[in-house]
Amino acid sequence: MGNSIYGNHINRMEEIVKNMQDRIAGLREKILNEQGMDPIEHYLARIKSDESMREKCRRNGLPETEESALKEIKDAIGIRIVCAFLDDVYIMRDYIIQMPDISVIQEKDYIRKAKPNGYRSYHMILQTFDGYYIEVQLRTISMDTWAALEHHMKYKKNLTCDTELIVAELKRCADELASTDVSMQAIKNLIMESESDENITS
Ligand code: 0O2
Fold it and tell me: Which residue from 87, 111, 134, 165 could staple onto 126, CB 3.0 to 4.6 Å apart?
């Protein structure tokens, strides 16, 4: 095995992953105490593997260097936060932008404006005070399920059936799941409203 593409940055990167995990756990507890509900279903933080990062450099026509891996490509450190409901995604986003010692470099709302293939998620690029980038993906359980299955199928290269049909069917599934997310949010809102009505009348 050759040298890591991240060179001697790897220790600091691991520290950032740990720190972000702690911050998210802290936020989760704070929101649970303040709002009485846990906005996070599950989350994971990772450093992109050496091989995936090298592959991404090649895919983007970049040399396989530390500079490309840490400065040009901004998802060497990645966090995926999976929320139960749509509103939770935006609640988490609003808390993340307030994190101390972190600046928000970019935000892409692929929920309000889904990718043409149906992919949905809220993407953020953060930067630590010492210049490391972190990609945050916020999504609902439905969006996560779709992305995982679509990712799985991307690697099934020897498809002999109609790929156009597959693309269209995947898009249809993404749109159906999105509509279910909207319905589930509406149901949750109804439950919350009836709970607060009960509190007023009792
Ligand atoms: P991996 O292996 O999951 O990390 P970028 O790809 O970051 O150079 P861009 O357009 O700025 O370019 O990023 P974008 O579109 O915000 O997407 C970055 C990441 O989002 C991807 O990282 C995927 O994890 C996820 N993603 C984006 N589009 C799709 C999609 O159509 N399907 C699925 N399943 N995931 C998607 P990587 O490095 O491509 O992949």
Answer: 134
